[in-house]
Target: Cytochrome c domain-containing protein
Amino acid sequence: MRKKLGIIIAVLTVVLANSWVAAQVGPGHPDRGEALYKEHCLRCHGRMGEGDGPDAQGLIVRPVDFHTARSRAKTDFELLIAISNGVLFSPMHSWRGRIADEDMVHVIAYVRALAPEYPHL
Model:
């Protein structure tokens, strides 16, 4: 009985702690993300997020075009992981330690504004 109680307490602690941590990062603000995007992302991803920035021409692996269906289908979490950790076998390097996590969320909000998941027809 004590073992079951211990397991239940451990599971509840993990669930509540994860919920608390997830709640600490609110939705991003596209206006804040725009300045960060222009400073850190525009040179590869381009002004409108189409992967056509001035540095993109010299890259073997082209930067992502945020307007493609595949890119728009990615979750915010997937985008956060790509920004934070970089993308294997691509020139997209890790921004962890260079940009605060909260700022990454703002950049994602700006990318969503540039290329919404469900664009208006």
